[in-house]
Write a structure and sequence with these properties.
The chain has 137 residues and is α/β, with parallel strands linked by helices. Helix content is 37%, strand content 22%. A hairpin with a 2-residue loop joins strand 1 and strand 2. It starts with 13 loop residues before the first strand and ends with a helix.
């Protein structure tokens, strides 16, 4: 019998177009492996014309990863309570506004992309003043 609580080993990357104050932001929800794979960045550039400029890590307290050179990363530990989470979200949101204005893209990832990643996406939408129903649509 299949365990409905067991996560699949590989979740396809999902693009979400998030309306921000400075334009539309292309947000990619990915796995940790996809976020560290330069081929994924090339795929996004070829298929959308957008350059991924930043990665938000929604898992772990210290948030570290191996990302392509020149990509900024932000620790946004969703399950951490306190300033570390809040400061990470605010810093990443401000970066997202800059990316939206320039027409760039960002990645949000946790380990498998469908638990903490979408929660962080919702937080960024809330910072942008969006109704949660719009973000989760």
């Amino acid at each position: 019998m299949m365990n409905p609580w067991r996560a699949p080993p590989q979740q396809p990357a999902t693009e979400v177009l998030l309306p921000m104050r400075n334009g539309e932001l292309s947000v990619w929800l990915t796995t940790k492996g996809q976020a560290g794979d330069p081929k994924f960045y090339d795929h996004v550039k070829r298929s959308t014309g957008k350059t991924i400029r930043g990665v938000a890590i929604a898992s772990g307290e210290n948030g570290r990863g191996n990302y392509p050179r020149g990509v900024e990363w932000f620790a946004c530990p969703i399950y951490h309570k306190g300033d570390k989470r809040t400061n990470g979200i605010v810093e990443f949101y401000e970066f997202c506004e800059q990316c939206a204005q320039k027409g760039d893209a960002v990645i949000i990832h946790c380990n498998q992309s469908f638990h903490r990643g979408p929660v962080l996406l919702s937080a960024i939408g809330k910072c942008a003043g969006l109704d949660k129903a719009v973000v989760l649509e």
